[in-house]
Amino acid sequence: MHCPFCRHSDSRVIDSRTSDDGLSIRRRRQCPECGGRFSTIETASLNVIKRSGVIESFSREKVMSGVRKACQGRPVTEADLAMLAQAVEEAVRQTGVSQIDTNEIGLAILGPLRELDEIAYLRFASVYQAFETLDDFDEAIALLRADHAQRAQREEV
After folding, report:
1. Are residues 39 and 63 in the same domain?
2. Range of the domain at 22
3. Which of 150, 140, 70, 142 has its CA nearest to residue 109?
4. pLDDT, tens only, 123-137
5. Contact between 1 and 40 (Cβ < 8 Å)
């Protein structure tokens, strides 16, 4: 890490603290050359392998953008999308891998999106899982209805 003041190539860590969410570390540093102090934030890298083979950094904003399209016209707020993106990132990071396929991210989105809004879930699933016929929609709706029936049964007991 170069000093932002004098561009010296070394610095000394004075203090380290974990962020509130536990996903990053804030380090307070001091340059041995000029004595300037500055902060850095360190996170574990998480890379996404796209279908084309291109590798890029994971982005919550991209998750939110993709889900936002499925949620158009639905009662879903930006805060809801941010919470969903955070849940997806946490689930993906819990796998312990540093590179993950876009397909796995899509699977990680489906569960939280289903809980958030079932219509948005159907929209997203229809594109993500490449629904080709009405039967594909019927199957997905039948699974949702079965889940509703199970929940209602549990609530009666």
Report:
1. no
2. 12-43
3. 70
4. 999 988 889 999 999
5. yes
